[in-house]
Automatic annotation (TrEMBL):
Domain DAGKc: 164-309
Pfam families on file: DAGK_cat, YegS_C
PROSITE patterns: DAGK (PS50146)
InterPro entries to which the protein is assigned, alphabetical: ATP-NAD_kinase_N, Diacylglycerol_kinase_cat_dom, Lipid_Phosphate_FormReg, NAD/diacylglycerol_kinase_sf, YegS/DAGK_C
GO molecular function: kinase activity
UniProt keyword list: ATP-binding, Kinase, Nucleotide-binding, Transferase
Domain of life: Eukaryota
Gene assigned in the entry: LOC105233241
UniProt protein name: Sphingosine kinase 1
SMART domains hit by this protein: DAGKc
Species, as recorded: Bactrocera dorsalis (Oriental fruit fly)
PANTHER family, alphabetized: LD11247P-RELATED (PTHR12358:SF112), SPHINGOSINE KINASE (PTHR12358)
Amino acid sequence: MEVEELTDIFYTSDKKGQVCRVKLNGQGFTLQRETTNNRSREQLIGLEDIVGSRCIVVKKDRRGCSMLCSSAAQNDGNRSDSGDDTKKKYNAITFQHNDASAYLYVFAYILNKKHLRNIIRRERTVLKLRFRSFDTFGDNMREAERWYHTVRAFKGRSLGCNDIDERRILVLLNPKSGSGKAREIFNRQVVPVLNEAEQPYDLHVTKHANYAREFVRVKVLDNYSGIVAVGGDGLFFEILNGLLMRADWLDARNILLGIVPCGSGNGLARSIAHVCGEPYEPKPILGATLTMLSGKSMAMDVVRVQQQNQILYSFLSVGWGLISDIDIESERLRSLGYQRFTIWTLHRLISLRTYRGKVSYLPKENVYMESDTISLAEPLPLKHSRSCNTCLDTMNSGCFQSTDCIEASKYYDVISLQNSISQSLKSRCDSWFSPASCRSTYHSVSESIYHSVDGGSDAESHLQHSNLSVHLCGPTGSAPTLNEPVPASWVVEEGEFVMVHAAYQTHLGSDCFFVPQAKFNDGIIYVVIIRSGISRSQLLNFLMGMSSGTHVPVTNNEFVKMVPVTALRIEPYDNEGILTVDGERIEFGPLQAELLPSMVRVMAPK
């Protein structure tokens, strides 16, 4: 169905009497201002940067301060009401100076390149449109709602459907992730953006280890468009394994998976941002939240890990030796956040360990059968966009001499304060979901559900500590089983190793650029092997180079090499060492890893 393009003339509040033509179409909002010398200046707020819009009613509280509330514009049944009937629905509202204006707020997050240090980040932008062409509030509100529904229709069409997906997002939050601030981060930084986008969600707080895995394995997922982990890579690991252990895993794997990085490592979130060319620092939470709302996704390879007593599914890495030792043993310093890795790296470098065993792998060129994978296009260069904190007032010949937007100066004072955490909270005072008094508590949108640690649904109450060592369901591979000998096409290396670490994402952590050439669905496991005999100075250079991706030599040498493979087997000779999958410690013993191409879909930036 074709969506009608809308155009109207507004006044700007920053310069009295200045006219601005506003056009809404499939590209977004185009603002065309008339300047001196009869020249015009255009600015575009792209549709891909808009997360949502809201029809607003301005009222006064008892102290005379202006406040904002939602107009419930999504109720189409109200569109035929007369102006008087519409006012009855807002009988608690005292209109300022008998003003019958209606407002449309448009929330966008636009790429902005700072001049200092060339930092590229997304910044919150609010476009405020005031409709007052008609004499009655009801008529003005219906006009504002027409623009509101048109924004939603264009957003839906950009996603290949008639309207925005109304299904909920299932959010699982680990309150102990990272430094233990995941709950606070979610309430302060994620919930406000979800509210602006009118995205309903169900929030469940995990209670113990493997809670998320068992929860996702038994949860009915029909009403969810995606599952998001608010925590670290360990929580996403549980969600992935719960999804692929379902009896209906073949259908369930099509649900979109996302992550809001609140852990210590955050390798997956950093990899998504890097591969898609989306800014990560200095606002990783904002970027991940916008990724949740983008409606975009990309296929991701999964690695099936087989041990004697269990099958696991991995999205990040499999490790034995140095990096795994650092990851697990530094848990005692978890309160330090990401810095714990640096401290324990120095400790482990001083007391270096080696491990005896055998490593077998199938090089990429000898893959059993090439799979059809969807290659992700190279990220487009970031475009510089100007911030547009704009308040516009619709033109009405009957009120040409009217004053500017109500509380306009206060609005601009608030929006301009976006450079610190405390000030960014103030910037949301004029948003639809909070009064002008600016409290730190945010309320979720209608239809959103929060399940506390002490309560929950009936299905949740049945979850107990489960022994998940027995594999239930899930995809299988074509490689020989762990008990069978490797085929002649495999390469076998034997001896003493400092580490063997296989990765399939660009980053193992937010500051660990481990495989610069990796893609999410390239069908490759990148195995880094470091043999015994390497000097501590060489190893120090390797570890320091991991932050920039320069750790692996261009040409493999006798001590360090990186090999692209599709299957891997690790067989330790001695009963010592640490084995990890996606940063989680697993039972020590032989393991085999095999790549399953494009097995799941992850949420991606626009």
